[in-house]
Design goal:
Layout lengths: L1 H21 L18 H16 L1 H10 L12 H14 L4 H9 L11 H9 L5 H14 L23 H12 L12 H11 L10
Helix pairs in contact: 4-5, 4-8, 5-9, 6-7, 7-8
Length: 213
């Protein structure tokens, strides 16, 4: 019985200590919280404003990531930045809308930070701003692009066929055929990155959220 009482007391003490640990003292007035348990309504209102201001600069940060692809060739005739510019230039000159062109521009933006799955990186980055069809294109373009080279590496070039019947299958196949796989030509005159910046800022705009169509 004494042992049971001891266990009960230990359990009670542990629960009390846990409660005390959660009740950390609030920071003095004018100081930011040091733990979320200290947060106030005013703290979170300020954080929300900071997040909104940070989001307004997202387009410029993404453009910065794109610039990091300069001189990254991996054996191709052009670097990854030129490939992205060329893909977007071809898409633009073919008469596609700005959202499509911006997707073309950023389709490989994840090559530096997510080389194992750059397509998912691009899709996550642009998800709030693009349609479901363009989002799917970004997410799957890598496996569709594989149609043009996987067989040389001992893999199945028809791996994309598992998606056959998807509403965006032909849409994505066309993107790869007309724009992505063709955009490694060092003689092609791509539009400069600056020409795309206004489009990027119109599409990647916190005030313009996708209607997901």
């Amino acid at each position: 019985m004494a042992l049971d009482l001891k266990r009960t007391l230990v359990s009670v003490v542990r629960r009390q200590l846990a409660r005390v640990a959660l009740k950390q003292p609030a920071p003095p007035p004018g100081r930011r919280m040091h733990a979320m348990t200290q947060g106030t309504r005013a703290d979170w209102a300020g954080i929300r404003r900071g997040d909104a201001a940070f989001a307004r600069d997202f387009a410029d940060r993404l453009l910065g990531q794109l610039r990091l692809l300069r001189d990254v060739r991996h054996g191709f005739a052009v670097d990854r930045l030129e490939h992205c510019l060329q893909t977007a230039s071809r898409a633009h000159r073919a008469g596609n809308d700005e959202e499509y062109v911006v997707c073309a521009l950023f389709h490989d933006v994840g090559a530096s930070l997510a080389p194992a799955d750059h397509a998912t990186f691009a899709a996550l980055a642009l998800k709030p701003y693009v349609s479901e069809r363009n989002l799917w294109l970004l997410q799957q373009h890598d496996i569709f692009q594989g149609y043009y080279y996987l067989h040389f590496l001992g893999h199945d070039r028809h791996a994309r066929d598992r998606f056959r019947g998807h509403p965006a299958f032909e849409y994505t196949a066309e993107f790869c055929e007309k724009f992505d796989q063709a955009a490694f030509d060092p003689t092609y005159e791509s539009m400069p990155l600056e020409a795309f910046v206004p489009m990027v800022r119109r599409v990647i705009n916190p005030g313009r959220r996708s209607g997901r169509k």
